[in-house]
Design brief:
Blueprint lengths: L5 E4 L3 H12 L7 E4 L3 H11 L2 E3 L2 H7 L2 E4 L6 H5 L3 H4 L5 E4 L6 H8 L5 E5 L9 E7 L5 H11 L3 E5 L5 H10 L1 H18 L4 H21 L4 H7 L6 H11 L2 H24 L2
Parallel strand pairs: 1-2, 1-4, 2-3, 4-5, 5-6, 7-8
Antiparallel strand pairs: 6-7
Helix pairs in contact: 8-13, 9-10
């Protein structure tokens, strides 16, 4: 995979995280190229990573075995349409990390059938701790699937889904998921300061507890529900807290929130796909 030329259309934060992850995983800088209309971004990419950059997206199509579509969803059509004539003769694997853009839209704007893999990453990929869902269309070969997986796993972990519609669920769970945990952390920090801790101490305790709980869950064969029961003693402090959460229907609220995110993802995909 590291010998393939990997091109990025768009040089924003997610592209930067992938470039950094690929280099850390042993990919040579001379097989990476990125395009961006912003000269400052191009200069930053070249300086920070030692990769080739260009202002012309056409260079990415003609020079890359793998094209990573890393622009904002609203400009995917604008990025792809001028390249449609090139896709007739140059057929890179397209990995799209543009949220909400279905494969049918990518094919429509590229004016040809291509091997396309949709990826829904999340922001912890910026520190190499991402969790992503992938879906491949029927034209993507096993080798191309392995290439995409290797690229995405350079910044975290990944899972495959066998239905493109499940990308909306992935979006709701892991794509938007960090915000749910930040929301909970913020509430716990507020409670800690109300209980007398200074803000720095509260932040440290809450964030380290969140990290420790996640690591414990990842290392255990037990479910989160079973782990919760293990630390909930009858008549104890944890039971009092969990009882309050249960009485306030916290679990149901979280489930409704995830479903709301999934439905919104579907709505956005429909509106973007109709552009």
């Amino acid at each position: 995979m590291t010998r393939k030329t990997i091109g990025f259309v768009g040089g924003g934060n997610m592209a930067r995280s992938l470039i950094g992850g690929l280099l850390a995983a042993g990919t040579r800088s001379d097989v990476l190229i990125a395009s961006d209309p912003d000269e400052d971004i191009r200069m930053s990419l070249a300086s920070d990573f030692g990769i080739q950059t260009t202002a012309d997206n056409a260079d990415i199509v003609t020079e890359s075995d793998v094209l990573i579509l890393a622009v904002k969803p609203q400009v995917v059509e604008e990025a792809l349409t001028p390249l449609s004539s090139l896709f007739a003769t140059h057929r890179p694997l397209v990995i799209s990390i543009a949220a909400g853009i279905p494969i049918t839209s990518i094919e429509k704007w590229a004016k040809t059938k291509l091997a396309v893999i949709r990826v829904m990453p999340n922001t912890p990929a910026l520190i190499g701790a991402g969790a992503a869902g992938l879906f491949a269309n029927g034209l993507a070969s096993p080798e191309q699937r392995a290439t995409a997986e290797s690229i995405i796993q350079s910044v975290g972990t990944s899972i495959w889904v066998n239905d493109e519609g499940l990308i909306d669920t992935v979006t709701a769970v892991s794509g938007s998921g960090p915000a749910y945990f930040f929301y909970l952390m913020d509430a716990m920090i507020e409670a800690a300061t109300e209980g007398g801790l200074d803000s720095e101490a509260a932040r440290t305790l809450v964030l380290e507890t969140a990290l420790g709980a996640s690591r414990l869950a990842l290392s255990s064969d037990e479910s989160p529900a079973e782990l919760r029961k293990r630390v909930t003693s009858p008549g104890g402090t944890t039971e009092a807290a969990v009882k309050t959460l249960t009485e306030d229907h916290c679990s149901e609220s979280i489930i409704r929130a995830v479903h709301a995110a999934r439905l919104r993802s579907i709505e956005l995909a429909q509106s973007l796909g109709e552009q």
